[in-house]
Amino acid sequence: MPNAGPSAKDRKAVAEGLSKLLADTYAVYLKTHGYHWNVRGPNFSQLHSLFMAQYTEMWAAIDEVAERIRALGELAPQGYGAFGNLSSIKDGDPAKNAEAMIQDLVASQEALIGTLYSILPAAQEAGDEVTASLISDRLTAHEKHAWMLRSSL
């Protein structure tokens, strides 16, 4: 357990928020990766590449978020059941057409951005600059992902 920085109570609260972030990120990662496999149509090549760039970026972030939870002294959630209980982001549908896939990913990215904004105050109030910085970095990434997707519509 850490002996410096935020209190144990604050670390636990921040880790709970990060657990939701982890689950949401994993859900959007899985959806994006699945749409990468299943996208079809005249913009296949561009969307296949865009989705790959986004899921690859999210894959690295998943590890950062989980490791931050551990650094706070808590256990990171793992498994589909745990993630399903923490995230409201639904699975993708491989039967959707390309435009519907993009719209679904925009909505999922926006939900994830909402999660990030909702958990930021706990980190700030705890004086947890490391987590606040991580959240800020994730906001930058997901706002860019959402913008790129919206620009593809």
From TrEMBL:
InterPro entries assigned: DPS_DNA-bd, DPS_DNA-bd_CS, Ferritin-like, Ferritin-like_SF, Ferritin_DPS_dom
Using the record, list the residue span of the signal peptide; answer none if the entry has no such feature: none
- For this UniProt record, give its keywords in alphabetical order, as a comma-separated list: DNA-binding
Judging by the UniProt lineage, the source's domain of life is Bacteria
Extract the GO molecular function terms from the UniProt entry.
DNA binding
**Ferritin/DPS domain span:** 16-151
Family, per the entry? Answer: Belongs to the Dps family.
Entry protein name: Starvation-inducible DNA-binding protein
High-level lineage: Bacteria, Pseudomonadati, Pseudomonadota, Alphaproteobacteria, Caulobacterales
